[in-house]
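Lecture 7, part B: from sequences to assemblies.

Below are the input chains for today's worked example.
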Amino acid sequence: MAGARQDVVAWFDDHARDLPWRAADRTPWGVLVSEVMLQQTPVVRVEPAWRAWMGRWPTPADLATAPTADVLRAWDRLGYPRRALRLQECARVVVERHGGDLPDDEAALLALPGVGTYTAAAVRAFAFGRRSVVLDTNVRRVLARLSAGEALPAPSQTVAERRLAAAWVPDDDTAAARWSGASMELGALVCTARAPRCDVCPVADRCRWLAAGRPADVYAHRRRAQAWTGTDRQARGRVMALLREALGPVPHDAVAAVWPDSAQLARCLDALVADGLVVREDAAGADPDPDAATYRLPH
DNA sequence: AATTCGGGGTG
DNA sequence: CACCCAGAATT
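Predicted structure of the full complex, as structure tokens:
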């Protein structure tokens, strides 16, 4: 295990991507922003967005006081815009509770909006150089193949899997942080989900999955393809795209034009308002007509 | 443990 | 066209 770790870290020293949130002048807050943006959004799409975002709001204090509409527009099409909302809430909590500086202990990080098990561990490792168990989709896949001999990890994490991952993390803070970055990078660049490049893998000769002849995914039948066309998520996305482009409040008729199913649209609008992503303003009058309402991003 | 929540690139 | 992407929050 220690030998495989050394090989992966040595490979990382030569092949790590030159990502801006890894630069020497990085800040803990910049690392956290990258991690939140990277929650289910690929690196190639995050990188330009992160550069623009950090140029505009370099510190938690900057983001905390920004107009939410600007924040949602800057988030653009990274997806799951509630993440942008939580990131701004996170900035406000950091300012109010931690004096504007990101905390480095696990519990305080986990208490921040939008920060879960993975993100807290990643920030501890990559922003503060502390030991933590960073178990994302990349590390899960690397360990599933290398250690368990399976094509892909189970749909959900298990206690045994976390225990295994923890056993792979060195005791030393610096070594642990390097292993976390290296194992993630190996999963992202070599040990990929679709077409793994076992020919250039630094631990191919130690991989149980490769040794077994790269058997098929045993969990394939339990994975559900994400439906998209006609879903609430697509409808919500249409509405958010419209409101991001709009200069002022958008009349109900214009919103209705982006989605054919009026009942579904009404349900999604209610949900967007409840989520704090959209503000509905009813027309003046004692008996407000729903069709006379306007919609906009929150200020 | 299962659902919900965007959007786009790729084999 | 199915699948995947540095997950989190809610139920």
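Note for the exam: Residues 40-42, 44-45, 77-83, 156, 194-195, 228, 232-234, 236-237, 240, 275 of chain A lie near DNA strand B (CB under 10 Å from a C1'). Keep this in mind when comparing with the next example.
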